[in-house]
Every structure is written in structure tokens, then in C-alpha cells.
Amino acid sequence: MINLSNVQKNYGKKVVLKGINLTFNENEAVAVVGSNGCGKTTLVELVANLIQPTEGEIVRQENLNIGMQFQDGSWPIGTKLSDLITFYKDKSYKKTEEFKKLVEAFDLEGIISRDISSLSGGQRQRINCFLSIINEPNVLILDELITGLDLEMQIKLISFFQNYKKEKKIILLIVSHIPEEVEALCDRVIILKDGTVYEDKNIEEITKEYGTLRKRLIKYYENEK
């Protein structure tokens, strides 16, 4: 469980988030959506303990292991996935069934020993997904999971993480601009607006009222104009 109580985050004189009261529970998949600049990235960085609030309190249960999949990663030229695996795990990990399963799921077989800087954006995205769960997190943050991927890999990754969240019963937190991705993976949607929680509802409530999340977000963006 992670609880944010009256959280505010400032950068200098700019207030990025304010009055945030949210709880994230085990075995729950939550999406954070909203227009650019509304505070999505700042919120997930606070949840992940990468930054600290200016005001308010964040309480996390003990022994949380947080994994994050970023949109892209920066590694020195010459870095290979095989090097990163050795950094995170001992050499015997490559012989495990879990490793083989993940390599197949993320289609990594042909790129494990290649220089990551030479790979396409989609290939690096798949590596980021792999690294985000290599240490078996109980909190997983996915940032624009399927952006830049072809349709086949989008479907494959959504299916993988649907099964992963059910099996591991983790807190899954997703930042996305793609409503269909959110509907496929999430139980709950938080809409941010101007650094505040504009709406926090279960996906069933939203689809019952609007038909689809896309239609709900169209209404939201119309109100932004």
C-alpha cells in the first residue's frame, strides 16, 4: 500500500501538484492520464520515491520493491543487455526458465548481445520492459508502455502484463495517452488537471457512463479548451 496525504510538489515557485490524496493498493492496476504538463510524471516519481514532496506525507508499506519502465533509457555506448543482466543478476540467471520466458515474451533473443545504443526505439522499449521486472517488483510503473511499438508487439505486451498483474498481485501504475491500453490493463483511472486530481474512478464506472474511456477523455479535453 502507498498512501499520499495532502501532497504538494513545487519546483521553485511553480506548483506542479497540490492537494493530492490518493491510495494505491496491492493487486490494483491504476492509470494516470491527463493533458501534457498536468503532473503525471511528477506524481509517479513521487510514488516511486525518486523525488520528495514539498508538503504533505507519503506512507509506503515496508519492503516495497519498485520497478519502473521508462520510455527510453540512456546507457553508455557499447552497453549490452547481457551486461545489464549480469549487473542485476548472477550468471546462473540466464539458465533459468524465468529468463527464457521473459526473453520470449519481449522478443529479445536476437538483441541480447548487441550494443543497446544501436537498437531501434522499439527494441530499447522492450529491453526497458524486461529490466523493469527482472527483480520481481511488487510495485511496477509503466510509462507509455506501447508507444513506438508495432501492433503485434503492442498486443503481445498488453497480454503479458495482463497476466503478470494477475499472477503477481502487484500495484501496477500506468502513465498513458492511449485509452485502449488503459482499458485493457487497468481497474481504475486517475485524471489529473492543473496539478490536481480531477477525477478518480473505476474503469467500470467510466465505461458505464460514457461507453468507453476514449469518449470520457474527449469530454475532458473539450473542457480543457
Automatic annotation (TrEMBL):
Residues 2-219 form the ABC transporter domain. Signal peptide: none annotated. One of its GO terms (molecular function) is ATP hydrolysis activity. It comes from the Bacteria. CDD domains: ABC_DR_subfamily_A. Pfam families: ABC_tran. Keywords: ATP-binding, Nucleotide-binding, Transport. Belongs to the ABC transporter superfamily. This is Peptide/nickel transport system ATP-binding protein.
